[in-house]
Design a protein that fits this description.
The protein has a 5-stranded mixed sheet, covered by helices on one side. It has a two-stranded antiparallel ribbon with strand order 1-3. The N terminus is likely disordered. It is α+β, with helices and mostly antiparallel strands. Among the domains are: 46 residues, no CATH class; 161 residues, Heat Shock Protein 90 (2-Layer Sandwich), CATH 3.30.565. The longest helix has 85 residues. Helix 5 crosses helix 6 and helix 6 packs across helix 8. The radius of gyration is 38 Å and the shape is elongated. The chain contains 9 helices and 7 strands, in the order H-H-H-H-H-E-H-H-E-E-H-E-E-H-E-E.
Length: 340
C-alpha cells in the first residue's frame, strides 16, 4: 500500500523526487526509477498526464521544424562560406606564385650589377682574343706561334661557355614554371644558385662543394633556390664583416641523405652570430645589419619555405668569431604525410 501511495505521489508531482526514488529503490523497483529519470531528462520535468501528451507532441514538432529550418539556413551559410574560402585560397595561391616569382626576380636584380660585370668581362675576353686572331689571319703581325693561337681559341671557347652557363643559371633561377612541386635535383639547384651569387662571395671566400648523392626531391625548387641564395648571401656578408678574403674565407656546402632525410648544410667561417640574438634571427624584419644591405626578412622567409611549405626542419649552430652553419632537412618524398 505504501508503494502505491508513492507511485501516486510521483504522478501528482507532490513529493520530492529524490525521496521518492529512494523509497522506490528500497522497494526493489529500480527499473521504475530508471524510467522516471529517463523521462524527466527528456522532458525536463516529471512525467506528464496523458492529457498533456498532445500538446507536448505539438510543441516537439514545432521545435523540430524550427531546428530543421535553422540547420538548413546554417548549412546553406556554411556552404557559401566554404565556397568563398576555396575562392580566397585560390586567389592566395595565385598571389603566392606571383610573389614568389617577383622575389626571385628581385633577388636576381640585387645581384644583377655583379652578373653584368662578369658577363661584360667575358665578352671583353672574347673580343681581345678575337682581335688577336684577326690580326694573325690578316697578316698584320709577324708569324704567330701556333701555341698562342691555340690558347687564344681555347680562351674564347671557355669565356663563351662561362657566359652561357651564367645565362642558363639566371634562366633557371627565375624560371616562372618552377612554382609547382615536382622531383628536382637539389645538387644542381645549389650549383646554379652559387653561380648566381658568385659576385657576392668571390672577394671574401672560396666556395667548396661537398655534394653527396641525392635522389630527386619532391619540392618547389624555385622556392628552395631562394633559401639557398639567402644563406649564401648571408654567409658572404658575415665573411666580409669578419675581414675575410678569397684565401682565408670559405663557404662549405654539403648534401647527404641522413636517416631518410635530405640534409643540406651551409657553413662559413665568418663573424658568427652573437648568443644574445641567435634566438631572434628567424623573426620577420630582424636584422643586425646596420649598413642597410638587408631587409631582415631573409631567414624568416627561408624558414617558412623549409618548415611550413616543405615540412622540413631548419637549425643553426654558430660561435661568435668562428663561424656559422645552417642545416636543412627535407623529406625525400616531399611534404610529410598528413600535411596539406
Amino acid at each position: 500500500m505504501r508503494t502505491q501511495l508513492h507511485i501516486i505521489a510521483v504522478e501528482d508531482g507532490a513529493a520530492d523526487a529524490e525521496i521518492i526514488e529512494r523509497h522506490l529503490a528500497n522497494a526493489g523497483l529500480q527499473c521504475v526509477v530508471r524510467q522516471v529519470k529517463t523521462e524527466r531528462d527528456i522532458t525536463g520535468a516529471l512525467p506528464k498526464r496523458p492529457s498533456e501528451d498532445s500538446r507536448s507532441d505539438q510543441d516537439l514538432s514545432r521545435r523540430l521544424a524550427a531546428l530543421e529550418e535553422t540547420a538548413r539556413i546554417r548549412t546553406a551559410s556554411l556552404a557559401e562560406a566554404i565556397t568563398q574560402l576555396h575562392k580566397q585560397t585560390r586567389l592566395r595561391q595565385e598571389a603566392e606564385i606571383e610573389l614568389g616569382l617577383s622575389q626571385k626576380l628581385a633577388a636576381v636584380g640585387r645581384l644583377a650589377a655583379g652578373i653584368v660585370r662578369e658577363i661584360d668581362a667575358l665578352i671583353q675576353y672574347v673580343g681581345d682574343s678575337a682581335n688577336i686572331l684577326q690580326s694573325v689571319f690578316n697578316e698584320k703581325v709577324s708569324p704567330f706561334p701556333a701555341a698562342d693561337v691555340r690558347s687564344a681559341i681555347e680562351r674564347m671557347i671557355e669565356a663563351c661557355r662561362r657566359a652561357a652557363t651564367i645565362v642558363r643559371a639566371i634562366r633557371e633561377f627565375a624560371d616562372p614554371d618552377a612554382t609547382e612541386r615536382a622531383p628536382a635535383n637539389l645538387n644542381r639547384a645549389i650549383e646554379t644558385t652559387l653561380l648566381i651569387a658568385r659576385n657576392e662571395y668571390q672577394c671574401v671566400a672560396t666556395a667548396q662543394l661537398q655534394l653527396g648523392e641525392l635522389p630527386d626531391i619532391v619540392c618547389n625548387v624555385g622556392e628552395l633556390r631562394q633559401v639557398f641564395l639567402n644563406l649564401i648571401v648571408n654567409a658572404a656578408r658575415a665573411l666580409a664583416d669578419a675581414g675575410r678574403d678569397s684565401k682565408s674565407g670559405r663557404i662549405i656546402i654539403r648534401t647527404a641523405i641522413v636517416d631518410g632525410w635530405a640534409q643540406l648544410q651551409f657553413e662559413d667561417n665568418g663573424c658568427g652570430i652573437p648568443r644574445a640574438i641567435i634566438d631572434g634571427i628567424y623573426d620577420p624584419f630582424f636584422t643586425d645589419d646596420e649598413s642597410g644591405r638587408g631587409s631582415g626578412r631573409g631567414l624568416a622567409i627561408a624558414r617558412a619555405i623549409v618548415v611550413a611549405k616543405h615540412s622540413g626542419r631548419m637549425s643553426v649552430e654558430s660561435t661568435q668569431g668562428v663561424g656559422t652553419c645552417f642545416t636543412l632537412y627535407l623529406p625525400v618524398g616531399g611534404r610529410a604525410a598528413g600535411c596539406s
